[in-house]
Design brief:
With 257 residues, the protein is α/β, with parallel strands linked by helices. The chain has one domain: Vaccinia Virus protein VP39 (Rossmann fold). The protein is built from nine helices and seven strands, in the order ααβαβαββαβααβααβ. Strands 3-2-1-4-5-7-6 form a seven-stranded mixed sheet, sandwiched between helices.
Length: 257
């Protein structure tokens, strides 16, 4: 417990949602497809990694996938909200897990690679988090980052999910460079589903009982079709295509100074 004042805070996320999130994410198309994209990116760009840090690991869904794909890696996960960590501990018992404020890291040049997956949009001081990630990495260490894209898609979902912003590619690139990173690869994803996302966001009417996890509760058929669609996207990304637009952004960057 490195930041006990944040342990039960609702800053950035509602801790009451973690139990339901842990139940839903393993079957949801977006989490499943994103994990496959991230595991490909880690294997492609960080094959020599031995120590990996995930900041904002939540219930440990991504970190569990990393542990299964790279069993020889030493894993560390951090999370501001203490209620998420028991779920992560059950998923990856061999990982080191810390309750921590991402804006104040105890690490100094300790990791070969680090990730923050849909995390920094929850934090007002996102550039402070990028600076701490930079400090946590060894020389030439790699950062893997995903964020929601396109301010035009801002909606009730973003407000209830405690987002501070949605990013443009230019904004994310500039913030990474200012933090001392060199961009290796940047691509949108959830690109083929962008028209559906836009339609959903523009037609949705806010209501008091809105549940931000409702979007994860899909009928199995569209859930499977959407997953297959994102698998096609991933195959094209692997082949070298960088999508210019999409619901999310993936960035791979190297500590350059």
């Amino acid at each position: 417990m490195l930041a006990p004042a944040l342990a039960a805070s609702t800053e950035g996320f509602d801790p009451a949602l973690f139990a339901e999130l842990a139940r839903l994410e393993a079957d949801n198309f977006w989490f499943r497809a994103r994990n496959r994209l991230l595991l490909w990116a880690l294997a492609r760009y960080a094959p020599a990694c031995r120590r990996f840090l995930e900041v904002g690991c939540g219930t440990g869904y991504v970190l569990q996938g990393v542990a299964q794909r790279f069993p020889d890696w030493s894993l560390c996960g951090t999370e501001a909200h203490a209620e998420a960590l028991p779920f992560a501990a059950r998923r990856i018992p061999a990982a080191t897990l810390l309750q921590m404020d991402a804006r104040l890291s105890p690490f100094e040049a300790e990791f070969d690679a680090a990730g923050a997956f849909d995390v920094i949009e929850h934090i007002r001081e996102d550039e402070a988090v990028l600076g701490e990630l930079h400090r946590s990495l060894k020389a030439d260490g790699l950062l893997f980052l995903t964020v929601p894209q396109h301010p035009l898609l801002w909606s009730e979902y973003d407000r209830r999910a405690h987002h501070e912003r949605r990013y443009t590619a230019a904004e994310l690139r500039q913030k990474l460079i200012r933090a001392g990173f060199e961009i290796i690869r940047m691509t949108s994803f959830v690109s083929l589903l962008l028209p559906l996302m836009l339609m959903s966001r523009l037609t949705h009417k806010p209501r008091e009982d809105y549940d931000p996890l409702d979007e994860l509760r899909l009928h199995p058929l569209p859930n499977r079709v959407f997953e297959w669609t994102l698998d096609v996207e991933r195959l094209l990304i692997r082949a070298g295509l960088s999508w210019p637009m999409g619901g999310s952004l993936l960035a791979v960057a190297r500590r350059s100074r």
